[in-house]
Amino acid sequence: MEELTRNQIPKIAIVGMDCYLGGNCHNLDSFEETIYEGEQHFVPLPAQRWQGIANQKQLLSKYGFDDRQAPLGAYIQNRQLPSVGVDEFDPQKLLMIHVADQALQDAGLDPGSRVAVLIVSATKLVLPESPVIKSPDTNNQLANYVSHKCNLTGPSLTFTAEQKSVFPALKMAQKLLANQEVDAVLVGAVELAGDSASVLLRNQITPVNTGVNTLSYDQNSHGWMVGEGAAAIVLKLHETAKRDHNRIYAAIDALAIVENTTSAINSIPTHIDAESITQACQEAFALAKIKPTDINYLEVMGSGIPSQDESEIKGLLRAYGTCEASLSCALGSAQANVGHTYAVSGLVSIVKTALCLYRRYIPVVPQWSSPKLPQMWQDSPFYVATESKPWLLEAEATKRIAAVNGMEVDGSYAHLILSEEVGQQEHDRYLGQIPYYLFAIAADDQASLLDQISTLQNIISNCSSLATAARETFRTFQKHHHPTYTLSILGRNQDELMREIERSFQGVKIAFETGKDWQTPVGSYFTAKPLGKDNKIAFVYSGSFNAYVGIARYLFRVFPQIYDDLVNRGIYNRAANVEKLLYPRSLKKLSKRELETIEQKLIDDPVALLEVEVYFTGFITAILKDYFQIKPQSAFGYSLGETSMMFAQGIWTNFKQSSQNLNSSSLFKTRLAGCKDAVREYWGLSQKHNINDENLWNNYVLLCPPSLVKEAIKSENRVYLTLINTPEEVIIGGDPQACQRVIQHLKCNAYLTPLKHVIHCEPMRSEYDEIARINTLAIQEVKETIFYSAAEYEPITLESNAVGQNIAKGLCQELDFPRLVNRVYNDGSKIFIEVGVGSNCSRWISKILQDKEHFTVSLNRRGTDDHISIIRVLAKLLSHRVDMDLSPLYSLSSPSFKKNQIVEETITLANHTTDNRFMRNNQPEILPEKYYTLPISPPSQQYELLEFSQSQPRYSMHKNSILTEEPRVMSKLIANNHQTSSVLLRDRASTDLLEQSISLPPKVSVGSSASLSHSVEVNDTVLPQEDNIFIAEEKNDKALLKNNRNPEIAVDKKQLANLRNSQYENLMNNAFNMAQNHKALLEIRQVSLHQISTIIDQQLNLYRTLFNQSSD
Prior knowledge:
The chain contains 36 helices and 42 strands. By secondary structure, the protein is an alpha/beta fold. The strands form 11 sheets. An 11-stranded mixed sheet has the order 5-4-6-8-1-9-16-15-10-11-13, sandwiched between helices. The longest helix is centred in the C-terminal third of the chain and has 50 residues, at about 1060-1110. The protein starts with a helix and ends with a helix.
């Protein structure tokens, strides 16, 4: 506990982020869309990559690709990168500079801010290309350049992944902020891991995925997936971020890091320790002062490397294990979308998790089926989402909490606890970025409208951004006040929009000629007889018991403010239970049959269905009223839709009380549903009448006039006409056999409804008082809207008891929906907007008013995304000239951030030095393969080079080792300082696979050792060597050189430091202090220079005065 106390740090806020990853993830928005939609970016190798290596079939075969094909991967192709520094930096560094700049802009930091820059660069795997000894400044050039270009004044440090990976760099950032040495810290990481040498080398150690591209825990996944890119986050102290009113993506509550000295420092570390993973988790829980059950989402490494995955699963199950399978925590991994980005993977996971917290959703794992080793997962809290879904709070939770698990190449295991920032105003631009565009055109006559269509046609045919074109078209539309006609054009892309525009020329003409509305399947719409100017709008609330699994899944994504809607906020008290029914949880993907079973369970729970109706209609109402400012003049409900109306319109605000009333009452459990005791009592059925609940009562839809049905049921005392939907459609309920006799007598079309409850009939009159009690709640008056009830088919008096009595009376008697609709219509409402589940009410209203002027729309249709339905409805209402605010569709008020104005140009990943060198060294013949593992031998870092002959290496998952025949081993201990003896062998037989450097020691063999002290002469410089060097038994350096052609030995003094040494940490701290002191010196010098300048100005003024006096 003492160690945990020492690690306690102030809360940190993530205030800026950006990333550029393989595929189409070119910025934060595209990455977030990838995560939510479950998109994957694994494509064939781009033509310009690998420079001919992809065509070397024998070479690919020798490096483990049996199909002789380059693997699919999330490769980066052409990119917009900073043009400044193109000659100075390679594409990898340019990519990092670009992403860092975007992250700083996202954070809105001012130039000159005290911001530290910490960059983790690509893994160093192989020998250096050049013997040139680089200065210490060269290694730090990348971070220095970012700091310089953005005019930042804090320290800047660049690490390789072996030195300090993302999580240790994050810990350093926390210390800098805690010590108030800087105001913010940028942490970035970059690796182009899709280069030929990176992929081929790593494929030798452990194979690329040959199965389904998904989370590697899946039973159909068999290996790691190629990915690459860069990411960056900007951090501040949480209290500072709040004081500065920064947007906070997520708060870092705890970071625990455990170093495993038996692990390998490599891009593919072996000897993974499950216990260390468990320890990191437990320390993080303690630091954050939470329980594992408080965490609802866990972002895992899921590397695809068998030994890593198995150890990670074991370690997490131990840390998060419960005594029962509660399914309270979702699992996910960004690698299922963008592949294994190696040095960047930890930061990509952090960015993804922060976005999920900020947007408040659980992300999908694409192509997930079921886990490997299912017996290991029994009684675990984990499930996997096969569709992204709203992240609703558990009953007792106050905020959303997530965790990120990391296993880095520097041998460290990390567990990071993140939480949402509660109560901040979210600036969501996603609605304006959805590729479903509404173009509004206004005119006062047909000719002008056709001219406007031609103008739009030219705009679309030449535009490069449809979102921008839609926004500018809307700005033009806003300038046309009170137009007579409005045309709505909808489309997802340029081709579709051009087709819709072409169709509109003829459609508009026909609409004017015939008076009939023009609309297309895509959603474009025009009416020559708009009704919105002189007629009222009515909101229609459909009856309950129509909800289905998956409803409203997308609404929270598109309209995030509904989370905070005052009417719906009370729903959170029951949201956790309802959410589990609407969005089922499972560790395996549910089959269609399993989903049908779950939905039937939902249908069989009337209380849950009723709550879902309130849940959904409240959201739709809030969207129309609060987002788009559509205000109804009247509202009414169908059956139990009246209760939904009361909550959605804000007449009732205490959903918790209503939920408690419903759940504590037997009304919809045993009286009107289940065993239906109210019916049994009304029919006089004693216990000896052993009638099964399923056979007691059924409901049927009949396509028959009500008058004929009323006549037919006179002879049946257990059949009731419950609802009249239209003049040609009714619902009857009662004894199943008696209902069948009525249907046979009428010889009409009929079908059984899935609902089994009793409603709108004489047998339920005994429940009148209970219904009134449940629906007698505190109310608040809602002005400007008239509310109608089916109790008396007239407006409701908004008084608590009166509302409860009206609802009870309406539910206990037959419902005549046409009568209710005609009453509202006669009072002046001609536009009907159905805001409940489905579109039954809209269909019925159209039948009821088929000979009258009216317009009806619905906002929910199963199988269609809700936001698509909403935009289509808006398009129709717009053409009918309904007053509304469409600005949320166009991101007119999206937040702006300060730009650092770095000019960009397109960079193509081709002719990369790695690919060129690999090709040069491997033609015309295939030479022996080489790869490297880098185990740690404390207190120093030991590099070990395994060189194999023609034998093919085999990877052992159980032993975490590489197996081959007659390996020749070379290793050397590297000292804990900055001066390295790096030896480069240059000849045709030596294959340096990557451009990054590695220190090559004298050839030795593991097995015997001796203590000695010696030195190596390098460029006339004698470098001291460490003791305890392993001595070669089989061959010495001379024998090695003798077998080589054109041998050259170049030695680079530069050497990796042992970053685990406390002296190195002290050195870093001293460096930071020196930087701060130097900064203070410069500030003092600047003040001094300013004072000197002032003195000089005063002297000049004095000379001028004396000169003027002498002249006088």
